[in-house]
Design brief:
188 residues, 2 helices, elongated
């Protein structure tokens, strides 16, 4: 947990694929897909590793620093798939599935905080505050740190309808959670 929040350097590359058809508002069925891949600490970073300084964390694990800052190494895959079906001009159905996994390796054995997954909030599990659920079935008191994980699975289903004038309503169901890939005895 401490390693997620310590100073670190992320040198990497990110790629994403987005498919969103034009004129979505006029289509009866609209699909959206976004898939992203991030790779930090890849082989292009090896020459910098040779220039770095050796160090050890509080557990005695060796790592390398560049200008006194530890660098992160991980691979992260993230996806977001959506489908909207218009029933008629006053109502529609919307479905969303979002999943991802991040695999830390090498110099920093955890995902950095800003690269970790979380659930909750206005764009996820709407009944919970952002970063207040998980990982897994962990239900201890919410500490001063946020709850983050290395894998996420989330799904939403909505029935959207027009009420009166500009007012609209929706019935929805959200499910999902985050998980760590390794057991953490402090968060069973």
């Amino acid at each position: 947990l401490r390693n997620s929040y310590t100073d670190h350097l992320i040198v990497g590359m990110r790629s994403s694929f987005v498919s969103s058809p034009p004129e979505v508002a006029r289509r009866r069925n609209a699909f959206f897909a976004r898939v992203g891949l991030e790779w930090a600490g890849h082989p292009l970073f090896v020459p910098l590793r040779e220039l770095g300084e050796a160090a050890q964390d509080t557990s005695g694990n060796p790592f390398v620093t560049i200008a006194g800052v530890r660098f992160a190494e991980f691979v992260k895959l993230d996806s977001d798939l959506r489908w909207r079906h218009t029933i008629h001009e006053r109502s529609s159905l919307a479905f969303r599935v979002s999943a991802g996994v991040g695999l830390p390796y090498g110099n920093l054995t955890v995902l950095p905080f800003e690269s970790s997954f979380f659930v909750g909030g206005a764009n996820g599990l709407r009944a919970w505050r952002s970063r207040s659920i998980g990982p897994g079935s962990f239900s201890g008191l919410l500490q001063a740190f946020d709850r983050t994980g290395e894998a996420r699975l989330e799904a939403n289903a909505e029935y959207r309808f027009k009420l009166i004038g500009f007012l609209e309503g929706a019935f929805f169901a959200d499910v999902g959670n985050i998980w760590n890939l390794q057991d953490d005895p402090r968060r069973p």
